[in-house]
Amino acid sequence: MYTVMLDLKGRSVLVVGGGTIATRRIKGFLQEGAAITVVAPTVSAEINEWEAKDQLRVKRKKVGEEDLLNVFLIVVATNDQAVNKFVKQHIKNDQLVNMASSFSDGNIQIPAQFSRGRLSLAISTDGASPLLTKRIKEDLSSNYDESYTQYTQFLYECRVLIHRLNVSKSRKHELLTEIINDQYRLSLVKQREFLQQIEKYK
After folding, report:
1. Is the pLDDT of residue 181 over 80?
2. Among the listed residues 188, 144, 121, 198, the one whose alpha carbon sits nearest the alpha carbon of residue 166
3. The domain 147-199: what is its CATH number?
4. What percent of the chain is modeled with pLDDT above 70?
5. pLDDT tens-digit readout, 129-156
6. Are 162 and 180 in contact (CB under 8 A)?
7. Short-list 14, 9, 5, 10, CA closest to 36
């Protein structure tokens, strides 16, 4: 498996199933601005709430071949082997498919993940141990706390400004390297001082 990141904004996403796993997947897709359709005879209370707010569409029925047409990403979040087999038989070669109950039956995996602003971390054991994946995610979540949300935004803004400076490539590299330091993550004063330093180059 090769790890990539997908921009799902406005993309069509079909979620087959309406239980706990489907709800967890949908929560992430909503944050990314995907155009979500859920197909399931019954759905969770959260999915009902999202539907009431027009955040997604729900078809309360079993999945059919017509539901799979023109869909960018399909997530099958059910333990029903008949449903899994049906989807596998009717998908197109260019569609992305994740089978929550059987990694090998789909062509993509959705790793455990979390974000801190512009920092995104994903963890997978390739189906070997979801429990180990969960433990590693918890460890990383603790190490990379909420301070990284503001810090990564600062890094982004600095990178944009530094690349516009009329200085040598080596000097730009020095400036970018300087701010990869905890003193800048932990101090807004240090961040302001650095930005003032950058202003002098203009």
Report:
1. yes
2. 198
3. 1.10.8.610
4. 100
5. 989 999 999 999 999 999 999 999 999 9
6. no
7. 14
Contacts of 30 (CB under 8 A, 6+ apart): 36, 50, 55, 56
Residue ranges per structural domain of the chain: 12-110, 147-199
3-state secondary structure of 143: helix
User: What's the full length of the chain, in residues?
Assistant: 202
Query: Is residue 2 scored above 90 in pLDDT?
Result: no
Q: Look at the domain 12-110 and name its fold.
A: Rossmann fold (3.40.50)
Q: Could you give phi then psi for residue 117, rounded to 5 degrees? A: 65, -120
From its phi and psi, is residue 70 left (phi > 0), alpha (psi between -120 and 50) or beta?
left
Q: Is the pLDDT of residue 105 over 90?
A: no
Would you say residue 63 has pLDDT above 80?
Answer: yes
